[in-house]
Amino acid sequence: MAKIITDENKIDEVLSRGVEEVIVKENLKKRLMSGKKLRIKLGIDPTGSVLHLGHAVVLRKLKDFQDLGHQVIFLIGDFTARIGDPTGRSVSRKPLTDKDIAANMKSYTKQAGLILDMKKVEIRYNSEWLNKLDFRELVMLSSKVTYAQVAQRADFKERIKNDQDLSLQEFLYPVMQGYDSVALKADVEIGGTDQKFNLLMGRQLQKRYNQEPQEIITCPLLEGLSGGDKMSKSLDNYIALTEKPEEMYGKIMSLTDGLIIRYFTLGTYLSLEKIAEIEQELGGGKVNPRDIKMRLAFEITKIYHGEKKAVAAQEYFVKTVQKKEAPEEVISKKLTVGSMNIMELLVEVGLTASKGEARRLIEQGGIKIDGSAVNDINKIIEITANGVLVQRGKRGFVRVVKK
Question: Which of 6, 115, 308, 392 is the most exposed place for a label (fewest CB within 10 A)?
């Protein structure tokens, strides 16, 4: 049985670093100091197949509690994903099929394992209990919550005011997420700041079911690559936990300088004291922000790929971006055709996922052939036995050769 750590300094850091709000902080600290093993829950709906650095903020907080010796629960919302969390939505989400959900969550535990010790994690799926609710039980569950309580959500209120559709299943979403905490007898639930309403619903329902209400920890939402909006796959501003080392390093180097300290704080294991020193260096103007960003990129890449690959990713960045050289080892792709449209070629060699993405990159000047930018989406690329070097952005290279 794991020893429960009750060191007050460690507990204070867990309750402060990367934390926006604790409800109720005094009570949670008392429970953590007691030495009792608590059940700490984090739920993620498999609405996409990729976990990114934004997800890592809450996963790392879950890991903090695991390191204190508590039982952490990684809850995959395979049932609630069928509805889709309406948080922050002005219109209904497109429903996901069971096939979509199964495909999305296929590698969730593997990705979460990049941060958590999965051998010690309780992995659960909310279909375990929500699939079993009959109509009478669902009516009884909904009776624990009033219309006025759910309708006060800002996004619901706005949709009702604008006479926009708000389905009953969306209305029930926070109730079902709250019921997860009842089913799991959670002592603590972690979530992003945008999840506060849903997390509070868990507290309320636990009271209605005569359980001790869970404490709540909300974590900041990590901004995406361009700043402003939160990191999201749908906005294409994310860094996946499974990103290739050189891609992860390069994407972090594309961050605006204003996000450097925030990414150090929410995305690395450096001490707060060390981060304060880095912030002072940045503010003093004696250090080039690029050099600080290189350290940030190295630290984050090291977490997910190890030091050796982080070093290689840094060397790759210096060579291909700073020195503007093609890497020594370039992926080679052989084709039987002698020519191909540029958009079709980009999809064929895997530099883009679709012609639409290819068009966008070409129009933005992000594609080069043998070092020269291509801005014509109708351009035909001649493929020879010697090959042509196709480049996406600063880091994506493929040499295309005719068979």
Answer: 308
Residue type, 254: S
* Angle in degrees, CA 231, 91, 106, rounded to 5: 50
Question: Model's pTM, two decimal places?
Answer: 0.78
Separation of alpha carbons 69 and 228, rounded Å = 36
Which tokens sit at 255?
Answer: 């961050």
Task: Please name every residue paired with 372 in a beta bridge, in sequence order, or none if there are none.
Answer: 369
* Of 115, 6, 2, 10, nearest in space to 53 by CA: 115
3-state helix, strand, coil in the chain (%, to 5): 45, 15, 40
* Per-position b or e across 12-39, b if 16+ CB within 10 A of its CB: eebbebbbeebbeeeebbebbeeeeebb
Closest to 258 measured CA to CA, from 296, 232, 286:
296
Domains of the chain: 8-219 (3.40.50.620), 245-322 (1.10.240.10), 331-402 (3.10.290.10)
Task: Reduce the secondary structure of 250-296 to three states and give it as a string.
Answer: HHHHCCCHHHHHHHHHHHCCCCHHHHHHHHHHHHHCCCCHHHHHHHH
Record the tokens describing residue 268, joined without a space. 């690395």
Query: Radius of gyration (Cα) for the chain, nearest Å?
Result: 24
Round the average pLDDT of the chain to a whole number and report it. Answer: 87
Q: What is the predicted pLDDT for the residue at 350?
A: 85
E strands present in 69-200: 71-76, 122-125, 188-192
Tell me how long the chain is.
403
Alpha helices in 321-366 (DSSP H): 342-348, 355-363
In sign, the C-alpha dihedral spanning 65, 71, 76, 80 is: negative
Tokens encoding 31: 């429970």
Distance from the first to the final alpha carbon of the chain: 61
Check the CA dihedral 158-161-167-168 and report its sign. Answer: positive
Look at 194 and 38; give whichever has higher pLDDT.
38
